[in-house]
């Protein structure tokens, strides 16, 4: 699926930008055939043509408000109005993309030596009606219930996401501020104002097949799509395999192994 040579792809500038700003662009590294395979499978899953046990589904809110997105409903029948699909490691196409040798090079450059596992593999979808607005947030904290917060997410655009099409927005360098709250998740509005996030935020419009690296602590958000076109983005979160789940209310999670130590790309 790679449109570039994983061994020779230049990462020095990419990794330096990531360290300084909390995000970095890889450019279009998913080839046309791979793009079509992942798009097709995303719709197969939403329309029930392919299914897996233990899959996670969340419908979008008809209001377009993030806080109105229904919780706990699961599969609601064939629809292109799902907001979120999770557990994509169960699918061989998405798993193959997560395990490509370029992503392994990046993960090994940024994570501690040793085995690498997956925290989550998730499809975020904004349908033709526009989808939901997602506020400034961070992907870490007690909300995630881990012994150590992950630091690397790889976000792949399956559709064009222009400025008016629900593209990602980030606050460069905000990963160095640490967690806005111990819980993590949505950044409180008073901190958004105090940090000047609206002034500092940078839009990251992308074309289908482009990939963006995100630090889990970098403030990021996305607005609704106002183009009448769908926006599918696939996010995989890589982490040190020594990380453990410490949640108490449910059975602690086990995490899917991606790369073993000593198996180099």
From TrEMBL:
Query: Keywords, A to Z?
Result: Dioxygenase, Oxidoreductase
One Pfam family of this chain: PhyH
* Keyword Nucleus carried by entry: no
Q: What GO molecular function annotations does the UniProt record carry, in alphabetical order?
A: 2-oxoglutarate-dependent dioxygenase activity; iron ion binding
Q: Which domain of life is it from?
A: Bacteria
Q: Which InterPro entries match?
A: Phytyl_CoA_dOase-like
What is its cofactor?
Answer: Fe(2+)
Gene3D superfamilies referenced in this protein's UniProt entry, alphabetically: q2cbj1_9rhob like domain
- Asked if Oxidoreductase is a keyword of the record, the answer is yes
From the Swiss-Prot or TrEMBL record, give the protein name: Phytanoyl-CoA dioxygenase
